[in-house]
Write a structure and sequence with these properties.
By secondary structure, the chain is α+β, with helices and mostly antiparallel strands. The protein has helices at about 1-20, 25-55, 60-100, 125-135, 150-155, 170-185, and strands spanning about 110-115, 140-145, 155, 160-165, 185-190, 200-205, 210. The chain is built from 6 helices and 7 strands, in the order αααβαβαββαβββ. The structure holds zinc ion.
Length: about 210
C-alpha cells in the first residue's frame, strides 16, 4: 500500500513538473484527452453491463472494463492535483522573488544600463503590462513586441524581446526598471541613440538581441 501511495505521489509530482516547465501549455489538452477517455470507457462499461445482465458475456469482461474506467478517472484526479501543485509552486516562486530581490546597482550616467539575470519570453509580458497599468492607470507604451520589420532590417533577433518607449530616467521608466529587477527579468535601458542598435531612449525587455 505504501509503495502504491509513493508511486502515485511521484506520478503527480512528475506531471506537475512538466506542467510548470511548459508554462501550463499542456494542462488543458491533457485533461480534455483524459475526459474523452473516461466518456468512452463509461459508454463501454454501460454496454457490457447490459450484455452481462442478459447473460451474453462473462462477469470477468464487465469487471475488466470497470477497472479500466476507475483507472481513467484516477488519471484525471492526478492531473488535477498536479495542476494545483504546479500553480502553488508558481505562486511560491513569485512570492520568493518579491521578498528577496537581487538588485544590481545600475549606472546613473551610462548610455546603456543592462541587467542580464533571469529569463524573459513573450509569455511573461502580461504581468508586466498589468503592473504598469495598475500603477500608472495607462497601458505600457510598447513600441515593438517580438520580431519587427525594423529588427529584420538591422539583422537583430528580437523574437523574445519587447521594446518600451520610456526614458529610463522618467518616473515611469524607473518604476518599470525596478519592477524588472525585482522580478528577475533581463533588460537593457537606453538613455540615448546608439547607431545601428537603438534609435533613441527606450527600455528593451529580454536578453540583448543578437545578430541573426
Ligand atoms: Zn529591443
Amino acid at each position: 500500500m505504501t509503495t502504491r501511495v509513493y508511486q502515485r505521489v511521484k506520478k503527480i509530482l512528475v506531471i506537475a513538473i512538466v506542467l510548470l516547465a511548459s508554462n501550463f501549455a499542456h494542462a488543458q489538452g491533457l485533461i480534455e484527452l483524459q475526459q474523452a477517455e473516461v466518456e468512452k470507457l463509461t459508454k463501454n462499461t454501460d454496454l457490457l453491463r447490459q450484455l452481462y445482465s442478459e447473460g451474453l458475456i462473462a462477469r470477468i469482461e464487465l469487471e475488466k472494463s470497470e477497472q479500466e474506467l476507475t483507472a481513467a478517472k484516477a488519471r484525471i484526479e492526478e492531473t488535477t492535483k498536479a495542476q494545483e501543485l504546479a500553480t502553488k509552486a508558481q505562486v511560491l516562486a513569485k512570492t520568493k522573488t518579491l521578498v528577496k530581490p537581487t538588485l544590481v546597482p545600475l549606472s546613473k550616467t551610462a548610455t546603456v544600463m543592462r541587467s542580464t539575470a533571469g529569463t524573459f519570453g513573450l509569455a511573461n509580458l502580461a504581468p508586466i503590462q498589468q503592473f504598469f497599468s495598475q500603477t500608472f492607470g495607462k497601458r505600457l507604451p510598447t513600441s515593438t513586441i517580438g520580431q519587427s520589420a525594423t529588427h529584420n532590417r538591422m539583422g537583430w533577433d528580437h523574437r523574445n524581446a519587447v521594446d518600451v518607449g520610456l526614458h529610463p530616467d522618467s518616473a515611469e521608466g524607473r518604476a518599470l526598471i525596478a519592477y524588472l529587477q525585482n522580478s528577475g527579468i533581463p533588460f537593457l535601458a537606453f538613455r540615448g541613440a546608439i547607431p545601428g542598435v537603438s534609435t533613441g531612449p527606450h527600455i528593451h525587455i529580454g536578453n540583448p538581441s543578437h545578430r541573426l
